[in-house]
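Q: For a teaching handout, I want to show students what a protein-ligand complex looks like in token form. Below are the inputs, and the small molecule is PBG. Please produce the holo structure.
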Amino acid sequence: MRMIITGKYPNLRLRRNRKTDWSRRLVRENTLSANDLILPIFLVEGINKKQSIKSMPEVYRYSIDRLAEIVDKAVSNKIPMVALFPYTNSKLKNNNGTESLNENNLVCRAIKFIKKKYKNNIGIMCDVALDPYTSHGHDGLLYKGNILNDKTVEILIKQSLLQAEMGCDVISPSDMMDGRIGEIRKNLEKHNFKDVQILSYAVKYASSFYGPFRNAVGSQNLLKGDKKTYQMDYSNNLEAIREVALDIKEGADMVMVKPGMPYLDIIKTVKDNFKIPVLAYQVSGEYSLIYNGIKKNLIDKRTILEVLIGFKRAGANAVITYFANEVARDLK
Ligand code: PBG
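A: Here is the structure, written as tokens, with PBG included.
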């Protein structure tokens, strides 16, 4: 893009357009609305539970009978989609994460509950990965210290089909196995789930910012080692283009960049290179940092909006954020 600047100071004064609120609104290049927000929800087994999470202040785990409390808010705030994450009882976890394929697991019951009650008034996205279900906390099958790619993909296909059957709208593989988008797409087609969308966690970095989330889903103390053999090295940006290119070719409808704030350059790179919806995930560590900063009066509440607009400016179509309900309410 070429910059065309005609004239110079004092004829040219960029401050003129900033003089009043109405003028700033008039020339504003990016905005945020409830349409740009996706709300993650944590699920827990049991009755009448709204459980606080040590690592994530004011975020809760809901039992299914209390799920309506938070989904009602999302619907009335006009948030387009929720993302479901289960806290799985440790006795249901094992080496192969078989609970992921139980048609009565927490996620399956939550999908059915939400679809029945809210129909298409709100979308549902579900992670496809094994980490909430494995006793070692990894997203795939662990064999002699290695995460098995192709064997894991076989399970992810089944997990995707199960979620689609339950009524999940958007399948979101967050596991970073090679080739899984193509395999999942092929099988969705084959089983007549032609309209189920795939949101690929295409560019997911091995990040310390996920710490509070792992506490929220109960995998933190289980995780053996790190996820560096499948999640991306945070020193890389060109590799992000390859990941996205592959996932688009394999049939992704939308792609995600994750984490968010330290990776705005990646969002922009993806947006500049591909004409596909790009979503950003403002992850748990980002949430807790900002939340605690506000609580301690180190920064004020408007920081949240500033950061979310930053995602839009970088090129994100929407942001997954634990602040979604609060922000959408304030925007009303
Ligand atoms: C699981 C998954 C993770 C997050 C979303 N899905 C954690 C991980 O990969 O270890 C992180 C979300 C957050 O930190 O808010 N595959």
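A: Two things your students might notice: The chain has a mean pLDDT of 97. The chain has one domain: 30-331.
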